[in-house]
Amino acid sequence: MNITKLLYSLVFTLFSLTVLAQQRPAAQQRPQTQQQSDKVELQGADSLEGVTINGQRITKLLGNVVFKQKETFLYADSVYQYRDSDMLEAFGNVRFNQADTVTMTGSRATYDGAKRTARMSGGVTMQDPRMTLTTPSLDYDFETRTATYTEGGTIVDPENRLESRRGSYDTKSKMFTFQQNVKVNSADYTITAQNMRYNTLSKIVYFQGPTYIKGQQGDLYAETGTYNTITKVSRFGRNAYIQTPEYRLGGDDLFYDEGRGYGTAKTNVSLKSLKDDVTIRGQVGRYWRDQGVAKVSGSPVMETIMDGDTLYLSADSLISREAKTPDAKSMLFAFNNVKIFKKDLQGKCDSLSYNRTDSVMYMNVKPILWSEESQLVSDTIRIHLRNKTIDKMYMFSNAFITSEDSLRNYNQVKGRDMTAYFQQGDIRRVDVNGNGESLYFALEGDTTLTGMNKAICSNMVLKFAENKLKTISFLVKPDASFIPPHELKESDKQLEGFTWLADQRPAKKDILATRTPIAPRVQPKKATKTKSTKDSGKSKRQAKSKK
Question: Residue limits of the Organic solvent tolerance-like N-terminal domain (predicted)?
């Protein structure tokens, strides 16, 4: 039986060569010098016949047809071979195999042996050791080993499922290029884009346009950059951001390690707290997801809405910390050279903390606040907010309020502690608690000075209107005096500790200006004892011992 099949194969091959030689003119036969491996060679078929269709001479091969060119094999149920060219048309169970690494199947294909290109259609599937591509039609270049589809395709590898309207695949570099309606799905994330590249070897996604990544730990957006689908490490550029339930961190140069929950952003950085609509802008941002901590430096500025107006706060560095347990507080910390600006409120201090859960703000180390014509100073200031409006303010230790009148006199009140009450964002009343002293200039019609009231009283109440000091009430009998204008001396016009600090009052441009961070303090080195000093000390101890 085997001998019969072998003889049949030899006879079939000789017959095929004879028919082809007779039907092809000598002028169109290939030179004898051409290598056999470059030709499109028939390897086998159950039957063949020569026909002419539309004036073209064609060899019809039927049943288990096999062709070979170089390292490429073509299998099909039937094939039309055009004798005047290296064109093949294959039908039924068409399969290409290149170097035993790339396999393509479909119901129909056209193969150009001169160009070594193929166009397949009818439920095309392409496979290599790393992925499977399915598409209605496919063009493949066997020289460049590049596949292209334009009617939608789906790529599946062990980690991801990718879809797009158009795309190409370089089987040498293992790089996919996707265009239009790109979607990537895995167990941990979903990616949508319009243009994207994906390497099936490294599992890295390359963004080339607006791209969204939705993950279990947060969402990412970028217009250019890379995302490693294995390590979950992202490197983005141009308008990129990370978004978690607490924050949205963005910048033009963004890095995020989803596994570690750590991200950094550089250039045009913005950090937005989604719970209370607080935004921090700067040049460098860092985010630790598990700790719920974000830090912005590089001339950072915080913006939030208060009293229907925007409150700006700047410092050398701003740190936001989210509450991770029910009993914890969400906090904002500002360090070094803190400045505050709002149309009707300005301030400065060395450091600041803001309890966003309880809406309480602490200004520490030489805090100063200005409200219209009033200046408030103490060792520490605590501000209570309600509905994003100042409701109450406590001034602890060495509290001092100064208010400038229309004649540029300075009404002054000092005490141990003070409590200020606000209404609709305006200061209405201040209670002085302990060691109270006051200077109040009496005016007639805001144009004429009629004298100055000076009083010492432990507890006082100050009333304000339009953010200006109007009256002072004494809760216990004061030690008071009235000094007429002609008896006033310059030394009488100031309480001890008075300082008018209007030159330090920040404007909006000061808040937004690029700043140079304060250099860290260098601790002085301890003096090293010289040998003579040590010897001298030793001699003194010995002398004392002898006594």
Answer: 38-193
